[in-house]
Amino acid sequence: MDCLFCKIIKGEIPSEKVYEDDLVYAFKDISPMAPVHILIIPKKHISTINDIEEYDESVIGHIFTVANKIAKELGIDEEGYRIVSNCNKNAGQTVFHVHFHLLAGKELITTLG
Ligand code: 5GP
Ligand code: ZN
C-alpha cells in the first residue's frame, strides 16, 4: 500500500521515533508547528476518522494513554498540550493514515476554526 505513514512504521522512510509498542507508533513531525510536535499513529492502516470501526476502539483509546505517557516523559503534562486530528479536506488532512498531533511547549493559539 502506498501510504507514507505505513512506510514510516516499517522503517522504509526514516523518522525520529518517540515511542513504539505493538499497536502504536509515535514520531516527531517533520514540519513542527510548536516546540513539541509529535504524531501518534495506529500501526494498523486506517485512512481517516471516518474509517474507524468499533473493533478499532481499543487502539484509538490506547493512543490517548500513549499521549499522556509521552507528555509525562517530556515534562509537558502539567503545563499542558493539545491533541488534534484532522479528517478530510475541510480540516486540512494531508496524510491519509489516521494520526493525532501532540502539540506543546508554548501557549497555543486558542481558535480552533
Ligand atoms: P495532517 O495535515 O494530515 O493533519 O498532518 C500531516 C502531518 O504529517 C503534517 O504535520 C506534516 O508535517 C507531517 N508529515 C508529512 N510528511 C512527513 C514525513 O515524511 N515525516 C514526518 N515526520 N512527518 C511528516
Ligand atoms: Zn498507512
UniProtKB/TrEMBL annotation:
The UniProt record lists the HIT domain at 4-113
Does Translocase show up as a keyword for this record? no
What the entry lists under InterPro entries is as follows:
Histidine_triad_CS (IPR019808), Histidine_triad_HIT (IPR001310), HIT-like (IPR011146), HIT-like_sf (IPR036265)
Q: Please provide, alphabetically and separated by semicolons, the GO molecular function terms listed in this UniProt record.
A: hydrolase activity
What keywords are annotated for this sequence in UniProt? Answer: Hydrolase
Q: Which residues form the active site?
A: 99
List the Pfam families hit by this protein, alphabetically.
HIT
Look up keyword Ribosomal protein and say if it applies: no
Q: Where is this motif: Histidine triad motif?
A: 97-101
PANTHER family xrefs? HISTIDINE TRIAD HIT PROTEIN
The name this protein goes by in its record: HIT family hydrolase
Species per Swiss-Prot/TrEMBL record: Clostridium bornimense
Show the taxonomic lineage.
Bacteria, Bacillati, Bacillota, Clostridia, Eubacteriales
